[in-house]
Amino acid sequence: MIRNTNPKLALCITMYNETEDDFKYTMRGVLQNYIALREDPYTQFRSKDFVVVVVVDGMENIPASFL
Predict the structure, then answer these.
(1) Rounded distance, CA 45 to CA 58, Å?
(2) Helix residue spans in 8-67 (DSSP H)
């Protein structure tokens, strides 16, 4: 059986030379917005309605802790 899993919202985050703290700050904000959408009865968001894609532009500038 094939189910419809099309997201209602797709978020793309690009990274180049952010620190680990910068990335955590960004992801914390994404999570807070996700929670707000889930708790809002008018949006009727479910977990499969939200997709986050992280695009890394060049591995040489990414801190080793990300690898």
Answers:
(1) 33
(2) 20-39
